[in-house]
Amino acid sequence: MLLATMANPLIYFSSCTLFLSILIILIKFFNKVWWTPICIQSLMKSQGIRGPSYRFLHGMNFLQWYGPQAQLIITEPELVKQILSNKDRAYPKTKVSSEIKKLLGDGIVLSEGEKWVKLRKLANHAFHGESIKGMVPEMIASLEIMLERWRHRNSKEIDIFVEFKILTSEVISRTSFGSSYLEGQHVFDMLTRMTHIISENNYRAPTFSFIQDSNVAEMNVHQNPEIWGEDALLFKPERFADGVVKATNNNIAAFMPFGLGPRNCAGMNFAITETKLALSMILQRYSFTLSPTYAHCPTEVLTMCPQHGVQVILQPYDHIALKV
After folding, report:
1. CA-CA distance, 81 to 256, in Å (whole number)?
2. Per the domain annotation, does 92 fall within a domain?
3. Contact assessment for residue 65 and residue 50, using Cβ atoms and an 8 Å cutoff
4. What is the DSSP string of 42-70?
5. Residue 276 is part of which domain span?
6. Which pTM does this prediction carry?
7. Which of 174, 149, 144 is nearest to 159 (CA)?
8. Which residues contact 271 (CB under 8 A, 6 or more apart)?
9. pLDDT digit string (tens) for 8-52?
10. Out of the domains of life, which is the source (predicted)?
11. Is residue 106 in a domain?
12. How many whole angstroms separate alpha carbon 236 and alpha carbon 228?
């Protein structure tokens, strides 16, 4: 009887503590996902700044507006696969203005119909397995130039984003034009400036909203915890150790780094070969860690990229240093 009397206050205290803990968690949660956004929206409205009403949940597919134009954002993998496969040609490409055509040209990206078929055949031939095999020596030579540059650096901190942009430009110059990055640097710099101008003036060119919306939709698919698990936002290359099928929980269409369907990236095999060679040659010489100076700030410049670069610290292997 005495034990029962003593146990009741303990049970009551434990229940109250648990209830308060849950209540605090719920308050913090709703403050983050509801109260704070609503306050920000109200503050903006009071200053004459208006926009779509905040919604806590969108679902996998949702509607958004670009001025008076409705845009359906699709992130459900099977629907994404169906749209990008486009077997019945029910999903035409967005029509672009004449100004945009002058800027990008009427090549494989914007063309459709028979013209696109011809251009795609040419691109497939250029990036055929045997063709890429013949490019490997030039890729290796480009990598050796980069690694030699690293060897003579006083600082072991590098911006790997910049280094890989130069590497890719060097590879393209050698394999496509028989030239070098230094010889064609002004062309690459001009293309970079043009890309930034396009992105910064997106509001003047509504067509490019399609590219940005595509990036948003793809990012939502690639970060969906229902597919990738609760650690979807973490950088974990090892999740692919047993293949894409297992990594995507049997949703292969949820992983599309090069797109899907007939209009996927024609240079996919080229990019994968370059990446494999780069990793194998770098990892033979260095280990590396993320620098404390790195600031995570992804931004859209036609595609998703790091606004402030990706700083890493190189650590040469001792046995390599001894050989040198």
Report:
1. 10
2. no
3. no
4. HHHHHTT---SPP-S---SEEEEEETTEE
5. 138-323
6. 0.72
7. 149
8. 258, 265
9. 666 666 777 877 888 888 888 778 777 887 887 787 778 776 666
10. Eukaryota
11. no
12. 11
Q: Which of 100, 98, 119, 99 is nearest to 108 (CA)?
A: 119
| Alpha-carbon gap, residue 151 to 111, rounded angstroms | 44
In degrees rounded to 5, what are phi and psi of residue 313? -105, 120
Tens digits of residue pLDDT in 205-255: 444 555 555 667 777 888 888 888 889 888 888 999 999 888 988 888 888
The domain total for the chain is: 1
Length of the chain measured in residues: 324
**Residues 108, 250: contact at Cβ < 8 Å?**
no
- CATH value at residue 166: 1.10.630.10
Nearest to 147 by CA among 271, 280, 311: 280
Instruction: Flag whether 64 is in a domain.
Output: no
Structure-token pair, residue 55: 């919604």
Take residue 97 and report the two structure tokens written for it: 């203005």
Does 46 map to a domain?
A: no
